[in-house]
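lol ok so funny story. i was supposed to be doing the assay writeup but got distracted and ended up predicting the structure for this chain instead. priorities right. anyway since i did it might as well share w the group, maybe its usefull for someone
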Amino acid sequence: MKKFILAVLFSLFSVSAFAFNDTVRVQWNDAGGEDSYQVERKDAACADPGVFNPIATKPANTVAHIETVTADATYCYRVRAGIGGEYGPWFEAEFYVPSPLNALTVSVVLEP
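and the output, tada:
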């Protein structure tokens, strides 16, 4: 059972973020076998110092989180899969939301 849990926790391999107008969609690949995902956000670039804040816990088989954002700001999102109270590594996606909010912005995908 432990090998299965580890395989699930490490199978989430990419996270990306897209913004359109004032909405951001953070998406990831379904790990398969997980029972939840944790989503956190830092209001800065991923490499910058700062604190990640929990923003959502998503159920199994979820592949995205959508929320409203502020223009002219950089955000770093991270997501990890969980099963039975154990969680895998964080996977991050960073992007800048331009001002005015009228263009599609595609993220830079970062691997752990």
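The chain has one helix and ten strands. Residues 8 and 32 are 6 Å apart (CA to CA).
back to the writeup now i swear
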